Amino acid sequence: MTSAERAIGMAKGVKTYQPLNITNGAQFGKVLTFAKAANYVGKSALILDAGFRVQGVSADKAAGRDWQRRAVMETTGFGLGAAAGTFVGGGIIASSLGVALMATPVGWVLVIGAGITAGYFAAKGADWGGKKAAGYAYDTSKSISWTSF
Question: What radius of gyration, in Å, describes the C-alpha atoms of the chain?
Fold first, then answer.
């Protein structure tokens, strides 16, 4: 995709690209292994992120800080971040999958890399916004006198 003419030709359906030729079961197995590995890495990253968040909440509790506020913020940030990252990253990969299938394996790496990068930044933004909103909601709910209801 470094050549604009090549990209325009692909969009018009001109056969100027080098297709990914999967001619036997071994090659298909390699593609399937790659897909499984990408799935494993994604799930492992979510588990690792959740572990760091739980560790932060535990550290706040041990230090006598407001660990419940931190738990609310981390839970909200994790949920929104995972949703945004999955949506944006998956959307980019899905929308570019046709191009990636027609491209060489380098094209696959570029499309997946772009999806991961966009998903990461979307997740970080949603995490930050979710934490801010959850912290504000938590602080507001603590300042309300619930006995008058």
Answer: 22
